[in-house]
Amino acid sequence: MPERIVIVGAGFGGIAAAQALRHADAQVTLIDRTNHHLFQPLLYQVAGAALSPADIAAANRALLRRNRNTRVLMAEVAGVDAAAKQVRLNDGRRLPFDRLILATGAAYSFFGHDDWAEHAFVLKSIDDALAIRAAVLGAFERAEQCDDPAELRRLLTFAVVGGGPTGVELAGTIAELARTTLARDFAHVDPRGARVVLCEMGDRILAGFDPALSASARRALESLGVEVRTGAAVETIDDGGLTVGGERIDAAAVLWAAGTAARPAATWLDAAAARNGAVKVRPDCSVPGHPDIFAIGDVASFQGDDGPLPGLAPVAKQQGKYVGRLIAGRIAGTPDPGPFRYRDYGSMAVIGRSRAVAEIGGMKLKGFVAWLAWSLVHLMLLVDFRSRVAVYVNWSWSWFTYGRGARLLTGYAPDPGEKPKPPVLEG
Amino acid sequence: MPERIVIVGAGFGGIAAAQALRHADAQVTLIDRTNHHLFQPLLYQVAGAALSPADIAAANRALLRRNRNTRVLMAEVAGVDAAAKQVRLNDGRRLPFDRLILATGAAYSFFGHDDWAEHAFVLKSIDDALAIRAAVLGAFERAEQCDDPAELRRLLTFAVVGGGPTGVELAGTIAELARTTLARDFAHVDPRGARVVLCEMGDRILAGFDPALSASARRALESLGVEVRTGAAVETIDDGGLTVGGERIDAAAVLWAAGTAARPAATWLDAAAARNGAVKVRPDCSVPGHPDIFAIGDVASFQGDDGPLPGLAPVAKQQGKYVGRLIAGRIAGTPDPGPFRYRDYGSMAVIGRSRAVAEIGGMKLKGFVAWLAWSLVHLMLLVDFRSRVAVYVNWSWSWFTYGRGARLLTGYAPDPGEKPKPPVLEG
Question: The complex's ipTM?
Fold first, then answer.
């Protein structure tokens, strides 16, 4: 009987592992609680109404159609019984495995302020992105009909917490949406008067980049009208806004991009975890004490040459490919490869429509050149041809016209104070 | 002071009226409870996962950007005070008007069985379409994991009630989704075994068409595997399926396309209404006794040469254009045109990927030729260039690959019996 390999999670890591196992003599089961793989680096463009959900997602079954040894299961995992070698699903079923790959990713963390989650938007799933889109477009619609100056000011204010790439991209895309696409469309309010505040606790945004690029990104954001506040710790978040560095900011929406925590795989295994909850793994990505259980991507804490590897898509993809090949080799009886080594091709963050900062193999790029590099890389990375086509068309079109094709507001909650709540399956 | 003209509803009628008033010396206000105009004839393709919402919708503000005399208001209308010439919004505000155009459309009607609404899906809004998509794709996902033969049979059964164009299009698109796109993607179930039942109370489907075309459409549906039941009246609908003509059919989803009723404009005005609730209007589309209040499209009952005009997009568009011009002429002081006359360019219904039936100016078309005609007409009709591009790309792609680009399942309710309920603003 072929080995049973279970992969939990259809993100970059899980899909890469399944692809690497495609020719292995194994029964592979990929479990995810949604039916689709998401190209997360472009999710902020769905929030900003520039792309449609289908442009950046692909059905897991379609992606793995040619993997004849792979079964896709849409289900939610409740835990792992490591001794019995079984995955427990939350409907009570148990799935036996010979080897297990945990690729469950990370969720947003509010640093112990769980009540903030009710009042702030995050950006992990398609539903999250559509909720942000509805909140932003809905605020302009309400502002158009508002006569109270204080409430009008609030409705045109958007606060983003966290100056990493996601926060920078969200702040840039909202500022640009207001200043270009929406600018001509309202009779009573001028969307260009919208205020976008980016709050970062540290002393600079994009702290993972070279200080010169941080400064360049800051200038680019400011030229789009974003107020960048560094050294500003959030004290409270409520439905009407937030308090940051002692100052009250009334806002139509607070977007949280400040910190993530790994999903609970470590507790499933009773394994040692890093501070963010990620499972500490061995150099072959296996969990200490469980040579047949692997953790990859954001749910794993892998010690690289300069500390733990960051929670980035390329890390997850490379680890998925590595572990898939490692297992395929063990099944085939070939010797193990050496330990996993991360190849860092660089990192990028986009500011608005045509600027970016990038560090690629020691090179530091900024402005339009960096944006071109970013566009090329992301087009190449997109997971299937279908996505590439649609994204390309949408992009070209909105680039030339400043229009936003996907400017739809569905599931809109008409009550002013209320945050639209789409039916959310994933955190 | 220029005349104040209020248009309620941004469907085909309301948008056409606003466009016809573009150069009038007037203050036009278009009110809709969503922010977008919807190309309803293609909505079933969103339900069938072939198109994305943004492909068939456009923001009202973007559509009317060049209408400098027009203000767009996202709000819900609660009633009309005809004596005071005011529209009442449901937040208590009142909007004065000199002339009013009611274009509020129709909603699905369950013929007095309002409890069926809880258990059946309808197809009027984007949220409706996404709910159908989630129910159908979710049923296959659950079937893949189901061991109980009776439940498995239920999960692969879909019932469509109503043999008009919408019912025919829905049944065709679901049957084809199962037999082509999904066919290769499941390990345990064969989606080609899915059962799609189309129930029509009358003695033939597409009763508005020539009997020969009805018969052709029936054969086309049957060749896709759809069971067509005519003379079959629905007796009950519940969460597990429906009873029709004395027979119980357990189904994963029941889709209701059997009858509509006008939205409540007639009661707002205390005006005479047809049996479906539509306001009976005079030959100039005005409401009897209210020469400055007009009703157009599905919310109006207009007596044509052969009885009341049908609830079709071309009727609404032509009436919108007529009333817009009529009012513009009155403002400019030119003589009124003659009474409204509907120009019937024909009607069409699509069966699956490459067949249709059409009656165009006395010509009867069927099969691929009819489908080509249908495609051309619908591409031409699409409201803005952006939509045309994206639909064309998506279509071409899925036509050649049998793939469905938009196969996303968001907001999926994992509980078997439960109908996914997206946050619905419109009925």
Answer: 0.76
